[in-house]
Structures are given as C-alpha cells and as structure tokens.
C-alpha cells in the first residue's frame, strides 16, 4: 500500500508516525505474500505494542490540547486496537502462530489505515484547520 497525500493530517509528528506504521504494515504484507507471515507476526506485534503506546499518547495529547470534540470516542477506538494487538499476542503465546492470526493482523492493519487514519485521524487535522492552526 502506498501513502496518499489525503492520509496527511497536517501535523508533522503524527504524519511521520503514520508513515512509519505504513512501512511496517508493508513489511508485514510482503512477508505474508512470501509465506513468511508466521515468522514476521511476532515482530510486528512487538513493534505495535511500543508504537501504539507512543503514537496514541501523542495523538491523544494533541486532541486534548485542541479540545477535540470526539476525544473520548477516538480514545475508545485506540483502546480497541491495543486490545486486538494484545489478544493476538496472547493467542500466539498459548496456541502458536496460525494462518488465521496472520490474516487477522493483516485485516486489522488494513482497516486501521483505511478507516482510522484516513477518516478518524483526518478529523483532528480538520479541527486544527478550523481553529486557524492556532493550536499547533
Ligand atoms: Fe487515532
């Protein structure tokens, strides 16, 4: 998947982190295409645990700084993503890596880019723009 300009929210730090996620996502997709998904999944999940901690923290802080109206809702979506990552990790620990777990992560990440970053995170950029960029 390629980065589209429309994914940018206009806040450099956040956009950089989103691009970083896309790099990891593509690495994982490539591994899946080359039948190496099972080997890559643990590494990807480990990355996601650290990444989400920092990135969601930054995004939520930004949202509170600009009095983003849907902060609570947005936070909930972040928490659900973290939960999915932790559940996948737990299932791998107890049952081992399965094709199903790689498909699940594949779908989760694609959905996150298309629906969360492209739609929900964009609203943060829109909110900043509406306030005349005064908040950042
Ligand atoms: Fe977000």
Automatic annotation (TrEMBL):
Q: Which SUPFAM superfamilies match?
A: Hemerythrin-like
Sorted keywords for this record are: Iron, Metal-binding
Q: What is this protein called?
A: Hemerythrin
Matching entries from CDD domains are given as: Hemerythrin
Span of domain Hemerythrin-like: 10-124
Q: Name one Pfam family in it.
A: Hemerythrin
To which protein family does this belong?
A: Belongs to the hemerythrin family.
PROSITE patterns referenced in this protein's UniProt entry, alphabetically: HEMERYTHRINS
Q: Which InterPro entries match?
A: Haemerythrin_Fe_BS, Hemerythrin, Hemerythrin-like, Hemerythrin-like_sf, Hemerythrin_metal-bd
Q: Which domain of life is it from?
A: Bacteria
